[in-house]
Design goal:
Blueprint (H helix, E strand, L loop, with lengths): L1 E7 L6 E5 L7 E2 L1 E3 L2 E8 L2 E9 L2 E3 L6 E3 L5 E7 L14 E4 L4 E5 L9 H17 L16 E2 L4 H11 L3 E6 L4 E7 H12 L15 H12 L15 E2 L4 H10 L4 E5 L11 E6 H13 L2 H7 L10 E2 L20 H10 L4 E5 L5 E6 L22 H12 L6 E2 L5 H8 L6 E5 L6 E6 H9 L1
Parallel strand pairs: 5-11, 12-13, 15-16, 21-22
Antiparallel strand pairs: 1-5, 2-3, 2-6, 4-5, 6-7, 6-9, 8-9, 10-11, 13-14, 16-17, 18-23, 19-20, 22-23
Length: 453
């Protein structure tokens, strides 16, 4: 339990106090000098509270405030035991401290207990403070290489450059508008391959030599806007500014289901030159957040929690953990076209490839499709006839062998976050240590959604 004093310093004839920990029952406040005060002995947690001053509900605007779903504003406070204090004898009644002239109210210990839910609330509060009080400028390196493609480039050349530079996405520059107008991604390459190989009116392979990226973006809306592929709609470029706080930037990435967001000088095109100053990504934000949390001794304890005991990720039914989504895996014999359909329609970045026993063999990622751009391999294959195993072999030939990014159910949260903060790592496959049977998946989006609640 922790003693916490609540103060109303702005005058009045009489004042009362209520909070989420009192069941919003009012308690009178004692006058100490020119301030009204009340002290509560509370378990650690995040709480909301208000003051009733001369019959009018008030909040202290100098303290953190929150607004509920009904628009009601309350103050919010984090109570923790980072700095221990001498606790009074437990009591469930209000008593008057004559020395201080302060009403001292001790909550019964059995009314609120230190539970996992409280620990999560405290941890998320610390995360929110870090994200809200730092800008994306603090995360993105001041000097870094940024690849940008001219939207007038032929599609074939653009994807060859992306492959050669190891890029799965790149901003597009519109010379006419003198600004960044969109992003070219591995998903675009998948859609182009599908369009080339379907029995509809499509571009010939030779026309890709002249067909520009901007023209492809326009054609994509017509070809795929009304198909079974996840809805493709025209929308303005999602972007942020260097001055935006990290929380807003992260939410922009998560809510728009994108992997990164351009950082522009301002919300309007800048005629003085290139407006793009960087790309904000969730791995970069998670890396920054981990370093900040580990600087706080009180923030480290929760990071040592094993993921098996946390409400995070997608788990196989045989583990006994409940999941909102179904864990999906594929066999090596699965047609590549079916694999790509699943990745696009379920908005997945990668999917585990397992043997007949469910043991992990490899992971096929959406970005792996870029290997087909090497020497125009995609012009010589049929997606429906190529298996995932064959596609992975092509990947090995182009980029060499690789190691799957995995973790164990006993891995700690900080170990998972540190792996997910590595560029290019979008999700970790949870495996049994000996059999390597897939138990679940934790994606970067899963981890960050848990962090902010």
């Amino acid at each position: 339990m922790v003693l916490r004093c609540f103060v109303w310093p702005y005058g009045g004839q009489r004042a009362s106090f209520c909070g989420s920990f009192t069941g919003w029952t009012e308690y009178p406040m004692g006058l100490v000098g020119a301030e009204f005060q009340v002290v509560f002995d509370l378990p650690p947690g995040v709480y909301q509270y208000r003051f009733l001053v001369d019959g009018v509900w008030r909040c202290d605007e100098a303290k953190p405030c929150v607004r509920d779903k009904y628009g009601v504003i309350s103050n919010e406070v984090l109570v923790d035991n980072t700095h221990p204090v001498v606790q009074p004898k437990p009591s469930s009644t209000r008593v008057m401290s004559m020395d201080e002239g302060t009403v001292l109210t001790t909550m019964p210990p059995d009314q609120l207990t230190q539970s996992s839910g409280v620990q999560i609330a405290i941890f998320r509060h610390r995360v929110s403070v870090i994200l809200l009080h730092n800008t994306i400028y603090d995360v993105v390196p001041v000097s870094s290489k940024i690849a940008v493609l001219d939207a007038r480039l032929p599609v074939k050349q653009a994807f060859k450059i992306m492959h050669d530079e190891g890029l799965s996405l790149v901003p597009l520059w519109d010379d006419h508008q003198q600004t960044i107008t969109g992003m070219l991604t591995a998903s675009d390459f998948v859609l182009i391959l599908r369009k080339l190989q379907r029995n509809i009116r499509v571009l010939g392979h030779e026309e890709l030599e002249m067909h520009s990226v901007s023209a492809w973006k326009e054609a994509k809306l017509q070809f795929y806007g009304r198909t079974d592929v996840a809805a493709i709609k025209r929308r303005p470029l999602i972007h942020v500014k260097y001055s935006d706080n990290i929380m807003d930037v992260a939410l922009a990435i998560i809510r728009n289901e994108i992997s990164s967001v351009p950082i522009l000088k301002s919300s309007l095109p800048d005629s003085s030159g290139m407006p793009l100053v960087g790309l904000a990504t969730l791995p970069g934000i998670v890396k920054f957040l981990c370093s900040k949390l580990q600087e706080q001794p009180e923030g480290c304890s929760f990071l040592q929690t094993q993921i098996v005991s946390m409400p995070i990720g997608t788990w196989s039914p045989h583990t006994g953990k409940a999941s909102n989504r179904q864990l999906k895996t594929l066999r090596p014999s699965t047609p590549l076209n079916s694999c790509l359909d699943l990745l696009l329609e379920d908005r997945l970045s990668s999917i585990p490839i397992v043997d007949d026993n469910g043991a992990l063999l490899d992971v096929y990622s959406l970005s792996d499709i870029m290997a087909l751009a090497k020497n125009d391999v995609y012009t010589r294959i049929e997606l429906e006839q190529v298996t995932v195993k064959h596609a992975l072999e092509l990947q090995y030939q182009v980029n060499g062998p690789r190691q799957c990014h995995t973790c164990l159910s006993s891995s700690t949260f900080i170990e998972v976050l540190e792996q997910l903060s590595v560029p290019g790592v979008r999700r970790l496959v949870i495996v049994e240590s000996r059999s390597r049977i897939v138990q679940g998946i934790i994606s970067l989006r899963d981890a960050f959604t848990f962090l902010i609640g």
